[in-house]
């Protein structure tokens, strides 16, 4: 209680002090300014306290004004003595320069760092798995936000990283992400730009050197209108993707021919671009093929997944037009974007791409002469004809369930002691030998016997699993990976594997059938309600207005949600009956 009284007393005393100071400030103003001016202010404001407040406000504003002016002049004068280069996020140079900066030794004066994890690059085929210790990423530090000093070739260079305030509300942050970008400014004292230009050039050269012979995969975040992520990795071996016989070679020669035909297109006034649609069940190698193709052709891949909401037409357009040169543009799950658009009409054009937006983006890719666009879908029947007409989509290729050629190929890929490129698989060696060493002849002979046995097993497997079983290459991959150490027992495991797949399919089909039934019931109920309403209105003598069937459209859209079971249902009784016999272009023969 005593403490409370003391504290209250102290607070009251402080308030009285502040009041005294304000009043004494007013008197000081009176003595500083002319009493006549003070009396005008007092007359206007009414009393001493308000007059003092008024003067404090004037002083505060003047201070801010003069401070800004002095800082402005200081910066203006300072800018006379240094040169700088600004690079904004969204340009490839931003990442190159970021990497360049993070490779510089950090000086002691840098006290604010940014840290990120970087995985060591693996030059092996990505399908190769090592049993070693769990790999850990490397920690990479770089100067964080603010201004820092680095040294390059003995010269002092200031590096300034700025991250714009992203705002608080959702709307703000979306706008800001598009308009305001992170930036890096490098500056140095003097009037000579050559050091800075050398740094920028060095950053670019280093990046190209690192990427040589590799595939860079660009992707983006929802709400971004530039390629915000770039991942460089060893190219996926072209032979590691196993497609129906002849399909890979056919596609490769089509693209190779296209890439050599710039003049041909130009002479005939045809836009120099080529579009491909890869369609088929999930897990048949559509994405893997595109990535492997890019590696084979020494191209990069720019992936935009239209199934993810957060992209609108404008962003898509900007993304496609700002794709780095020599890239394959990959639009994944085109059907998902359109279904979502229908289902979420309110947001159309804000957070979702529209059909016309996709069409305009495809037609308007002007930034890249010779662009190669791939679209993938699991549901070709849901695509609008306008999207897949020639000109936008020149080739439509079915990636179907595995055929005999693929089943054999997948089996050999996982079980043989050598990969398709002829390289030995280390885990098949019984002796402790490294792959770089000459392998012992005895060991070689043992592996030749082993491989001959694997070929026999592959033939047996082709008898047991057929195209009619509707197995995807991804499912085969999982199965062969599981049994890759036991070729002797793998054939016996096949019935169980097929049973498990059938069970999975049945579960998905039942789920879908139930969902369809539920949707049909809802639709019937809605129609009955509408009919009742109409009858009631007619009975009341009201004129009926023609009712658009927008609701129906929405319902239809929702009921068209993608599920993998579409394919399983269709495939019941054999996929050949569903898709018919297909030629290499995926068209019915
Ligand atoms: N034809 C194939 N050859 C080699 N590996 C394959 C093949 N098909 C699938 N795989 C393997 O299966 C996995 C999934 O493949 P991928 O993502 O390419 O399939 P997808 O057809 O693009 O699927 P989705 O339609 O769901 O996007 C990958 O690990 C890939 O290595």
From TrEMBL:
Basic and acidic residues bias: where? 517-537
Q: Does the keyword ATP-binding apply?
A: yes
Q: Where is this region: Disordered?
A: 512-589
Q: Where is the BCS1 N-terminal domain?
A: 57-241
Which GO MF terms does the UniProt record name? ATP binding; ATP hydrolysis activity
InterPro entries in the record, alphabetically? AAA+_ATPase (IPR003593), AAA_lid_BCS1 (IPR057495), ATPase_AAA_core (IPR003959), BCS1_N (IPR014851), Mitochondrial_chaperone_BCS1 (IPR050747), P-loop_NTPase (IPR027417)
Q: Which domain of life is it from?
A: Eukaryota
The record places domain AAA+ ATPase at: 272-403
The answer to keyword Iron applying to this record is no
This protein's membrane topology, according to the annotation, is:
Single-pass membrane protein
Q: Where in the cell is it found?
A: Mitochondrion inner membrane
Q: Which reaction does it catalyse?
A: ATP + H2O = ADP + phosphate + H(+)
Q: Which GO terms describe its cellular component?
A: mitochondrial inner membrane
Q: Which UniProt keywords apply?
A: ATP-binding, Hydrolase, Membrane, Mitochondrion, Mitochondrion inner membrane, Nucleotide-binding, Transmembrane, Transmembrane helix
Q: Where is the composition biased (Acidic residues)?
A: 547-558
Q: Which residues form a coiled coil?
A: none
Member of which family? Belongs to the AAA ATPase family. BCS1 subfamily.
What is this protein's record name? Answer: P-loop containing nucleoside triphosphate hydrolase protein
What is the species listed in this Swiss-Prot or TrEMBL entry?
Answer: Linnemannia hyalina
């Amino acid at each position: 209680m005593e403490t409370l009284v003391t504290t209250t007393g102290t607070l009251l005393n402080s308030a009285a002090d502040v009041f005294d100071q304000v009043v004494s400030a007013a008197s000081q103003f009176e003595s500083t300014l002319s009493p006549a001016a003070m009396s005008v202010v007092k007359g206007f404001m009414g009393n001493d306290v308000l007059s003092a407040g008024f003067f404090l406000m004037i002083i505060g504003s003047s201070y801010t004004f003069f401070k800004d002016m002095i800082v402005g002049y200081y910066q203006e004068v300072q800018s006379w003595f240094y040169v700088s280069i600004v690079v904004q996020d969204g340009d490839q140079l931003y990442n190159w320069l970021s990497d360049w900066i993070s490779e510089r030794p950090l000086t002691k004066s840098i006290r604010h760092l940014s840290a990120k994890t970087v995985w060591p690059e693996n030059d092996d085929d990505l399908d190769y798995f090592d049993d070693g210790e769990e790999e850990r990423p490397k920690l990479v530090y770089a100067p964080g936000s603010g201004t820092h000093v680095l040294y390059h070739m003995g010269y002092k260079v200031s590096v300034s990283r700025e991250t714009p305030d992203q705002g608080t509300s959702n709307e703000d942050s979306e706008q800001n992400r598009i308009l305001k970008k992170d930036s890096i400014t490098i500056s140095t004292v003097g009037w000579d730009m050559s050091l800075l230009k050398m740094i920028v050039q060095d950053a670019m050269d280093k990046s190209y050197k690192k990427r040589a012979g590799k595939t860079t995969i660009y992707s983006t975040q929802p709400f971004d209108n530039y390629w915000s992520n770039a991942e460089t990795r060893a190219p996926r071996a072209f032979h590691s993707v196993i497609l129906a016989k002849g399909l890979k070679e056919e596609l490769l020669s089509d693209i190779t021919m296209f890439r050599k035909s710039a003049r041909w297109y130009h002479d005939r006034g045809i836009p120099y671009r080529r579009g491909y649609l890869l369609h088929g069940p999930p897990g048949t190698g559509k994405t893997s093929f595109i990535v492997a193709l890019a590696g084979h052709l020494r191209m990069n891949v720019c992936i935009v997944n239209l199934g993810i909401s957060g992209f609108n037409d404008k962003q898509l357009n900007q993304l496609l037009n700002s794709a780095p040169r020599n890239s394959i543009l990959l639009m994944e799950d085109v059907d998902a974007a359109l279904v979502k658009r229908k289902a979420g009409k309110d947001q159309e054009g804000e957070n979702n791409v529209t059909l016309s937006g996709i069409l305009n983006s495809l037609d308007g890719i002007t930034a890249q002469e010779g662009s190669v666009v791939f679209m993938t879908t699991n549901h070709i029947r849901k695509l609008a004809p306008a999207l897949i007409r020639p000109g936008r989509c020149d080739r439509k290729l079915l990636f179907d369930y595995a055929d005999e050629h693929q089943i054999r190929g997948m089996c050999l890929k996982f079980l043989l002691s050598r990969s398709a490129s002829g390289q030995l698989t280390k885990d098949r060696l019984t002796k402790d030998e490294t792959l770089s060493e000459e392998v012992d002849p005895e060991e070689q002979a043992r592996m030749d016997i082993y491989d001959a046995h694997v070929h026999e097993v592959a033939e047996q497997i082709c008898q047991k699993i057929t195209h009619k079983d509707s197995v995807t290459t991804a499912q085969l991959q999982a199965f062969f990976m599981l049994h890759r150490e036991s070729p002797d027992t793998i054939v016996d495991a096949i019935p169980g594997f097929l049973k498990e797949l059938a069970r999975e399919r049945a579960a998905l089909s039942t789920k879908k059938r139930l969902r369809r039934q539920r949707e049909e019931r809802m639709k019937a109920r809605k129609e009955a309600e509408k009919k009742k309403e109409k009858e009631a209105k007619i009975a009341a003598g009201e004129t009926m207005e023609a009712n658009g069937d927008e609701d129906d459209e929405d319902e239809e859209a929702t009921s068209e949600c993608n599920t993998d079971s579409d394919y399983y249902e269709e495939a019941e009784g054999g996929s050949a009956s569903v898709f018919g016999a297909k030629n290499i272009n995926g068209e019915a023969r």
